[in-house]
Design a protein that fits this description.
Blueprint: H1 7-16, E1 24-27, H2 34-43, E2 48-53, H3 56-68, E3 75-79, E4 93-99, H4 114-127, E5 128-138, H5 145-157, E6 164-170, E7 180-186
Parallel strand pairs: 1-2, 1-4, 2-3, 4-5
Antiparallel strand pairs: 5-7, 6-7
Length: 189
């Protein structure tokens, strides 16, 4: 097993260290449901997960996966863009996960955009409990992906260091626009 994790694996490691049974979490980009299932397992039957996606097919895939794992009860699927996160979730979230870009195996003309992702990130940080984290796995190889990455990094770099710790994790020697991880922890005051 490699010592250096890929960005998605690193995000999951961070999340595992932050969530416990009974916690609340958000999968801001449900996609095919793998992160939703991962979060649902961590929060358990007494926890709550909200999973967002604008594509009905993504939510159908996620619902099927949740059902096959017997995890549907603690998850609310939201057919909406993640920029509407604040209208659907409760405060005191332990984790918010984003996998940016487009739906693997889906319509590649539908992808995340900096304008909506920044709104969602801001809402996520407001709803996060102290000690909670937001992870954003940034896939920059799609149209507008580089601009989204730059906008997110600029926003994160501007966060008050007394309130947030920010990490940017990326593979330097990989070709074809490898993903990177942006992780933001809300500090206890």
């Amino acid at each position: 097993m490699p010592v250096i994790c890929r960005p998605l694996e690193m995000a999951r490691t961070m999340v595992m260290n932050c969530l416990a049974s009974g916690d609340k979490a958000v999968d801001a980009t449900a996609g095919n449901g793998r992160d939703t299932v991962f979060l649902a397992r961590l929060v358990g039957a007494s926890g709550k997960v909200w999973a967002f996606d604008i594509q009905k097919c993504a939510l159908i895939n996620t619902a099927r996966l949740l059902e096959s794992e017997n995890l549907s009860n603690q998850v609310t699927l939201v057919e909406s863009g993640h920029e509407h996160l604040s209208h659907h979730v409760e405060d005191n979230l332990g984790v918010v996960m984003f996998n940016l870009g487009y739906l693997p195996g889906g319509d590649h003309s539908v992808f995340t955009r900096p304008s909506t992702t920044l709104i969602a990130l801001e809402a996520a940080l407001k709803s996060l409990r102290q000690g909670g984290i937001v992870t954003l796995v940034i896939y920059s190889g799609h149209p507008g992906g580089k601009e989204e990455e730059v906008a997110l990094l600029q926003y994160a770099a501007s966060l008050n260091q007394a309130k947030f710790t920010v990490l940017h994790y990326r593979m330097l020697n990989q070709v074809n626009n490898p993903p990177s991880l942006l992780a933001i922890e809300k500090l206890a005051l």
